[in-house]
Write a structure and sequence with these properties.
Distance between the termini: 59 Å
Shape: globular
Oligomer: single chain
Helix content: 25-40%
Number of helices: 6
C-alpha cells in the first residue's frame, strides 16, 4: 500500500469516526401558557400539568425530527435577455411531528387533548359542549401558542449541540392510536405541531436544557433499577 493510500485511509477513519448519530437528542418543553395550564387543571383535573410538561413530556418523546424549511421564490425573466432568474421572497416552514409514549395515567394524551380543546373553547361561557346547539369559537393565537418548545441534537461528550427553539407553536393534529386484541405493545401517539418559525442556537450546549433533561433521564433509570431490585427481593410483589 502506498503512502498516499495510507494517508487517505487514515483521513477517512478520522473523518467517518466523527459523524453524528441520530439517536442522541433531547426534546424539552420549558413551560406552558398559564391559560392552558389553568384550563387543563380546571377541566381535566390534572393539577401537576405544568410540572409534567416541563419534566416528563420530553423524556416520553421517542421519535422526533429536526425541522425543515425552504425558500419561496419568484421568477423574473426580463432583467437580462434570455436569462431567467429567481429571487427569494419568503421562508417556508413545514409542520413537525413528534411521537410520544403514553403513560398509564394517560396524562400526556389528556394534556394534548386539553391543549386542543382550549384552542376551540371560546364559546364555553355561552353554551356547554353537551348541549344540542353547541358551536365552537377559536381562542386568540396569543393565548394558545407557546415559544417554549425545544429540540437539542447533541453528541455523547456533550461538547457540541444544536438547539432549535420553535416560536409560536401549537398542536395541529393528533394521529389515531390503534388498539387491538392481539399481542401487547406500548401505546404511542404522534402529534403534529405548527409553528411560525424556529431559531437555531449554534453555540455550545445550553446546560439549562440538556443537563436538566439528561439528569432527569438518569434519575428515572436509577429509580427503575431500584424498583426491579425491590421486586426481586419481595416475593409478595409482582412486577407488572
Amino acid at each position: 500500500m502506498s503512502l498516499v493510500s495510507k494517508i487517505t485511509m487514515t483521513d477517512a477513519k478520522v473523518k467517518f469516526g466523527q459523524l453524528s448519530l441520530n439517536n442522541q437528542y433531547q426534546v424539552h418543553f420549558a413551560g406552558f401558557n398559564t391559560n392552558i395550564v389553568n384550563y387543563i387543571r380546571n377541566n381535566l383535573g390534572i393539577v401537576n400539568a405544568d410540572d409534567f410538561i416541563s419534566r416528563e413530556m420530553g423524556i416520553m418523546c421517542f421519535d422526533a425530527s429536526l425541522p425543515a424549511s425552504a425558500l419561496a421564490t419568484a421568477e423574473v425573466k426580463d432583467n437580462f435577455m434570455g436569462v431567467p432568474q429567481e429571487f427569494a421572497h419568503s421562508r417556508l416552514y413545514t409542520d413537525i411531528d413528534f411521537s410520544f409514549y403514553i403513560d398509564k395515567d394517560y396524562t400526556l394524551l389528556r394534556i394534548f387533548e386539553g391543549w386542543m380543546d382550549y384552542i376551540t373553547s371560546g364559546a364555553e361561557t355561552e353554551v356547554g359542549d353537551l348541549q344540542k346547539p353547541f358551536y365552537r369559537r377559536m381562542r386568540y393565537p396569543d393565548t394558545y401558542k407557546v415559544s417554549s418548545m425545544y429540540i437539542s441534537k447533541f453528541e455523547k461528550n456533550l461538547n457540541r449541540a444544536l438547539t432549535y427553539q420553535f416560536i409560536n407553536t401549537f398542536p395541529k393534529s393528533i394521529t389515531p392510536i390503534p388498539v387491538t386484541y392481539g399481542s401487547a405493545d406500548l401505546l404511542k401517539v404522534s402529534v403534529s405541531f405548527n409553528y411560525d418559525r424556529y431559531v437555531v442556537n449554534r453555540k455550545r450546549r445550553q446546560p439549562s436544557i440538556l443537563s436538566a433533561g439528561l439528569d432527569l433521564f438518569n434519575s428515572f433509570k436509577s429509580s427503575e433499577t431500584q424498583t426491579k431490585k425491590y421486586n426481586s427481593n419481595d416475593p409478595q410483589t409482582v412486577d407488572t
